[in-house]
Amino acid sequence: MESLDLILLLNPCLMALTLGSLQNILYVALGLGMVIFFHELGHFAVAKWCDVHVEQFSIGFGPAILAKRWGETVYALRAIPFGGYVQMLGQDDADPSQLTSEEIAADPRSFSSKPVWQRMAIISAGVIMNLITGLIFCAIAFAMGVESVPAIVGSVEPGHPAWVAGLERGDKIEKMGGRTIRSFEEVSISAALSTGPIDVEGRRRDDTPFKTVVVPDTSGNRPSIGVSFSSSLRLMKFLNGDPTVMPGTPAASAEPPLQGLDLITHVDDVEVKSFQDLEDRLVSKGGETVTLTVRRPPVNAAGVPDLDAPGEEIKSRVGPGFFRTLGLSMDTGPVTAVRLGSPAQKAGFLAKDKIVKVGDRAIGTALNPLRLPDELSQMAGKEIEITVARQKDGGGNQEVVLKVTPESSPGWLDAPLRAGDALAIPAIGVAIQVVPVVLSVDPGSPAEAAGIKPGQRILKLALLPHPDEGSGPDAKTVEVDLGSDKEKNVNNWAFAFVQLQRYPLRKATLTIKEDSETRTLDLEPVADKEWPYPRRGFAMYPARTTQQAKSFSEAFKMGYANMEKSVLNIYMTLRSLFTGHLSVFELHGPLGIARAAYEISKLGISSLLIFLGFLSANLAVINFLPIPMLDGGHMVFLGYEAITRRKPNEKVQIAATYAGMAFVLGLMLFVICLDLFVHKF
Question: Which residues form a coiled coil (predicted)?
Answer without folding.
Answer: none
